[in-house]
Amino acid sequence: MGDRMTIKTDDGSFEAYVARPSASPAPAVVVLQEIFGVNAVMREITDGLAGQGFLAICPDLFWRIEPGIDITDKSEAEWKRAFELFGAFDVDKGVEDIAATITTIRSDPGCNGKVGAVGFCLGGLLAYLTATRTDAEASVSYYGVGIEGRLPEAEKLASPLMLHIAEEDQFVPKTVQELIIQGLHNHPQIEIHAYPGRDHAFARPGGEHYNEADAKLAGGRSLAFFRKHLA
Length: 231
What we know:
By secondary structure, the chain is α/β, with parallel strands linked by helices. It has helices spanning 40-51, 76-88, 91-106, 122-133, 174-184, 212-229, and strands at 2-9, 12-19, 26-32, 55-59, 111-120, 138-142, 161-166, 190-195. The two termini are 23 Å apart.
């Protein structure tokens, strides 16, 4: 279903995977990757959003380190490489690249002018920062890692944000989850959903901690959220 699009920035150009819906113009959703690059899981999510009527785009946010990263969560070597990439990733530059992606896809003839973002893991943090630093109309964060260090940025939030929190997240301890919830739950633009018994990446198809029921529950909430705010 997908094709490729080039995003240009002052620092250079990078590629993005694009999936188009059957009808246009349509609202766009930027899919923000995990630490495994624009892999089959991210492309599947992008294709799925197109199937739901969105112009979906997944930018290669690791391009500054190494373009075209496409690995899985199935081997120790790939996990090691993924964490190396995570450690080398410049979050601030990544958000700049997301902003460039938003600008590019918003001007696409297939876009109705409204753009949202959804991110997972590393992308969950980036979705939060997309909400606080860009002009995206709505953002959804799945089990974002590192949000607790960015809580003051919520003061700049002007568009709706949904957070999905896995209560047994091995990368976000319960004490950290409490900080995030306490810091954000009173914000009028933020909607938080917690999933008891779920570990990190419970919505990753084929992943070790995938839970079909809660993945569908979170996905349904996200879809309704985007349809409400990107119409």
